[in-house]
Amino acid sequence: MLPRGARADLAEDADRLAQTWKDRGAEISRLAPIFLDHGRNKRFVVPQDSADEELPGCTMVVLLGAPSADFAVLTAFEADLPALPAGLLPHGHPALDPEDRGTKSSLGVVSLVRCGPRRKDLASLVVSMRSPRGAVEVLVARSSAPLGDLRDALPERAFGLVAPRGNPGRPIEPGPLAERTVRAEERARSEGAERFTRVPMVASAEGAGEYQLRLGDGCHRLQVMAAVPPTFPHRATDVDAEARDDAGRMLARDRSEAADARLDFCLGEATRVTVPFAGAAGMVPMMVIDAVWPIPRAIPNHWGARTRAGFALALRRRNAPEPTAAPVFESLGVAGPTMVPVPLEPGRCYLAALAVARGESRGLRLAATVGDRYVRDEVIDRPEGAVLAFCAESEASARIDIEARGSGVWWTFALFALGGGEP
């Protein structure tokens, strides 16, 4: 019989902790594991004993994730607390983030202990995941006295003191709107933008609003800016925005902590674009600057406007060389992995481009194998197109591997010849 292999996973950690508590005389129960993605919350009920309110003793609930997991646990009371109105905060105090509530994990562990009548506080708990995704084991122990430090059972989870968060103060003021507008146009002009349009408006009292823009074909950079009020006190300026087409498809989104929002996307034809925004400091003047780069003429348009825009966006994203002639090879495919063999001319360089033609894409991967050389481009953020360049030495063919993930995705592949030499 072969010996059992050693394990060091999450379930094994939970088993060790449960056994340690049993050895100390505690009654142990394990709930079903919780699986969450980033930003998701899960409320669950901790089974209660009818004698909990009458007999002395303690209840400990431990939530155990991977050591790198970042999550928080709130009691039902904490989760249901209303947000503190901004007007009640002292001047200059940063806004309180509701996500800062609860007990935060340290090395993937949250431990909550209540004794006596306060045990009912743990009847319902909420887990909030801050990591990209993770699994959480839940253990409940009931005992006549506190069970001590769980690091006795899991010494590898030992951690030191955690310094409290400081108050960094107010964000830096971004400066006058007119100066920021000029700087944004100069920066875009230095990068090759050919056309500029300014669209003013005034934000609502809440610092929000919505632009309805009719934009022509090309690659656009929309910068949404808000003026800073001349009076104090005033809210900080942190504009967030997004752009959507008539069908509701997301073209670009900015949720950064910068004062101005920047949206980069390409359009294969004239399109009506909606740009909702928020984060201005009240009813202040707004300005949207639309800087436009033309789509390279060599990009084919017979596959449709979205494909044309996807090729152009991929070229801009990777700062790839602009093709000067029509594709020498084209192909059409659907979601999933696909291998496409392409003919090559020895001594020439090529640009391989991939664009989504329809569907909801969640990721694109484009790879080329040329002899013993391998190049790849993978796009997860707004996966509308991917691009890579390579050269053929003595090879007469290359293997192109395409993987498209999403719902109802159709893609178009194009191979452009760039000429000899290194790309």
Description:
This protein has helices spanning 10-23, 76-79, 177-190, 305-318; strands spanning 27-37, 41-45, 58-64, 71-75, 103-104, 109-115, 124-129, 133-143, 195-202, 209-215, 218-226, 240-244, 250-254, 261-267, 271-278, 285-293, 329-334, 336-343, 349-370, 373-379, 385-391, 397-419. The chain is mainly beta. Strands 17, 18, 19, 20, 21 and 22 form a six-stranded antiparallel β-sheet that branches. It has a four-stranded antiparallel β-sheet with strand order 1-8-3-6, with helices on one face. It is flat and about 80 Å long.
Relevant terms:
single chain; 423 residues; 4 helices; 11% helix; flat; disordered N terminus
TL;DR?
This protein is 11% helix and 44% strand. The chain has 423 residues and is mainly beta. Strands 17, 18, 19, 20, 21 and 22 form a 6-stranded antiparallel beta sheet that branches.
Fold topology:
Layout: H1 10-23, E1 27-37, E2 41-45, E3 58-64, E4 71-75, H2 76-79, E5 103-104, E6 109-115, E7 124-129, E8 133-143, H3 177-190, E9 195-202, E10 209-215, E11 218-226, E12 240-244, E13 250-254, E14 261-267, E15 271-278, E16 285-293, H4 305-318, E17 329-334, E18 336-343, E19 349-370, E20 373-379, E21 385-391, E22 397-419
Antiparallel strand pairs: 1-8, 2-7, 3-6, 3-8, 4-5, 4-7, 9-16, 10-15, 11-14, 11-16, 12-13, 12-15, 17-22, 18-22, 19-20, 19-21, 19-22
